Amino acid sequence: MLLADGTVRTYFALPPDYPFEPAPLPPLAHIPRHAGPEAWPPHHQPPPHQQQFPPHDAKRKHHADPDEGFSRYPKQPRFEAPHHPSQMPPPVDRQAVRKAFLKYSKMLNENTAQKRSYLEGGRVPCLPCGRSSKDFADVHGLIMHAYNPPNADSFVDHLGLHKALCVLMGWDYTKKPDNSKAYQSLSPDLVRASREDLILWPPTVIICNTAYGRKKDGRSEGMGNKEMDKKIAELGFAGGKSKSLYGKEGHLGQTLIKFANNPAGLKEAERLAEFLERQDHGRVGWSRVQATHSLDPDTSPLLVETDNRGEKKRILYGYLAISSDMDELDSDSRKRATLKSRKDFDASD
Ligand SMILES: [Zn+2]
Fold it and tell me: How remote is the CA of residue 137 from the centroid of ligand 1, in Å?
């Protein structure tokens, strides 16, 4: 699609069945904040220490242990404690699984090429245990493995990955995955809700359409940080710090507004996002602009307006940054950012 700054971008960030222009969507407040009942993490216990080991582990054992016959898998690898049936495994640590979910969500979203390989449903590796993509036919195979991890040591990490993958793919993490693939059906509203729950931290609003056009040397210029700080303050929003994004050809037409990393900062960021949304200048409004071909960036009424003094102004679009926006950030912001669940703040309101 053609962006306001004249560059063309493929919209690979969402799966092919994602409703690109969902019509019509309920207002944010009416969308449930999570998919399905809170049946997650699953109630099953961590598996006993045993079972399949990646081939390299088996090989290592053969070298370390000349007594082991080549045809035998080691029954108990040395690095794990023996399993006694009388010792019940500890219950699932929900807090730890939640942390693992946020960690793997960031890992899945921060690398554009990696994210694309997961979304396109090809062969993908397992991040927690490092099994290669050859071990899984597709993302479904990896999800089955993550939900039924091979050993207790990596149980929490694998469950975190299971949920992160489901949210990325738009699937239902609260349903047990099986070969019927029923867990892969989720209504567009719930897909959107589970994705929009995963917000960038510190709270960030991505403002679009902030480029002015190209200078004579071909470089694009746009709103500077101070100018945007002033604009946001004039609109009545406090505490936001602007950071315009630049690429090889200059201003990218996007500016991040970062708010304080506390509940008050989140409220202010949400207030700004809702202000833009009310004018249909939110995420869906901006997608619509991007999908409209041959817009003249200097005259299109979708991009510029004339104020009452007769001056032309860029129309600002913007939305609260979520996990899937991570690859739009500059590398420094991406490295520093973490993800949080918006639901966690509702609980403390
Ligand atoms: Zn694994």
Answer: 14
- pLDDT at residue 53, as a whole number: 44
Exposure string for 244-271, b = 16+ CB within 10 A, e = fewer: bbeeeebbbbbbbbbbbeeeebbebbbe
Ligand 1 centroid to Cα of residue 169, in Å, is 18
Beta carbons within 10 angstroms of residue 23's beta carbon:
7
* Backbone CA torsion sign across 149, 155, 157, 159: positive
Specify whether the CB–CB gap between 211 and 6 falls below 8 A.
Answer: no
Q: What is the mean pLDDT of the chain?
A: 80
Residues around ligand 1, an ion, CB closer than 5 A:
126, 129
Please give the domain boundaries of the chain with CATH numbers for all domains: 55-187 (no CATH), 198-348 (3.30.70.2890)
Cα 284 to middle of ligand 1, angstroms: 36
pLDDT for 269-288, tens place per residue?
999 999 999 999 999 999 99
- Parts of the chain with a pLDDT under 70: 1-40, 42-90, 347-349
Contact 302, 295 (CB under 8 A): yes
Three-state DSSP at 135 gives helix
For 203-214, letters b (16+ CB in 10 Å) and e give bbbbbbbbbbeb
The pLDDT of residue 218 is 86
How much distance in Å is there from the Cα of 178 to the middle of ligand 1?
A: 17
Q: What is the distance in A from the centroid of ligand 1 to the CA of 156?
A: 11
pLDDT tens column, 97-130: 999 999 999 999 998 888 998 899 878 889 999 9
224 Cα to the center of ligand 1, angstroms:
45
pLDDT at position 58, please?
A: 41
Could you tell me how far CA 199 lies from the centroid of its own chain? 8
